[in-house]
Amino acid sequence: MSSKVTALDLESGENLGDKTQAYFDLCEEKLGLVPNVLKAYAFDEVKLRAFTDMYNDLMLGESGLSKLEREMIAVAVSSVNHCFYCLTAHGAAVRELSGDPALGELMVMNYRVADLDERRRAMLDFSVKLTERPAEILESDRQALRDAGFSDRDIWDIASVAAFFNMSNRVAAATDMRPNDEYHSRAR
């Protein structure tokens, strides 16, 4: 399934429930677009709601992690997984939130070459290890996060964001999900 083809006629809004249409209208108002990932999930409103509820909780809810840090995790994980959709969409978010287009591009290519403080480097190192070698996560990895200033709740949030994007990257790859064209030019 590409971003242009879905199970529903989303261009006209036909077959969308009232709540979904209202949510898409809100996206259009706030973002200037309806992200293609939402359109892809719209074939099943229960699945769409589950996806958006989890996304909104992890990325917008209360956390010791800033919105930028959560987006940085999304990009670091998506870089490992070579997820075109998430690298494009969340790379744009890093550019926008940081005000630094170069940081956004460095994050997409290799966060290790970006000028990051110890806290963010530890967060991303943990997220990438959790992505590449989850069975090798040890107490020393969690302690490294604590030493960098993260609480146990923050560690939960880091792990949850990383895990969510690992799942999302795999769904995007499996369905040939493509990012909205608008993401390519944002905050450049």
> Tally of extended strands?
0
**What's the N-to-C terminus distance?**
29 Å
- Look at the structure and give the mean pLDDT: 92
**Structural class estimated from helices and strands:** mainly alpha
Number of alpha- plus pi-helical segments: 9
Give the assembly state of these chains.
single chain
CATH topology of the largest domain: AhpD-like
How would you sum up the global shape? globular
Helix and strand element order: HHHHHHHHH
CATH superfamily label of the largest domain:
AhpD-like
How would you sum up the major sheet? none
The count of domains is 2
InterPro entries: AhpD-like, AhpD_core, CMD-like, Uncharacterised_peroxidase-rel
Domain Carboxymuconolactone decarboxylase-like: 49-96
Protein name: Peroxidase-related enzyme
GO molecular function, one term: peroxiredoxin activity
Question: What would you say this structure looks like, in words?
Answer:
- GO terms for molecular function: peroxiredoxin activity.
- This is Peroxidase-related enzyme.
- It holds the Pfam family CMD.
- Residues 49-96 form the Carboxymuconolactone decarboxylase-like domain.
- Keywords: Oxidoreductase, Peroxidase.
- The chain has 188 residues and is mainly alpha-helical.
- The chain has two domains: 18-60, AhpD-like (Single alpha-helices involved in coiled-coils or other helix-helix interfaces, Up-down Bundle); 67-185, Up-down Bundle (AhpD-like).
- The chain is 66% helix and 0% strand.
- It contains nine helices and no strands.
- The chain has helices spanning 18-31, 36-41, 45-60, 67-81, 84-98, 101-110, 118-132, 139-147, 152-175.
- Helix 3 (45-60) packs antiparallel against helix 9 (152-175), helix 4 (67-81) crosses helix 9 and helix 5 (84-98) runs antiparallel to helix 6 (101-110).
- The two termini are 29 Å apart.
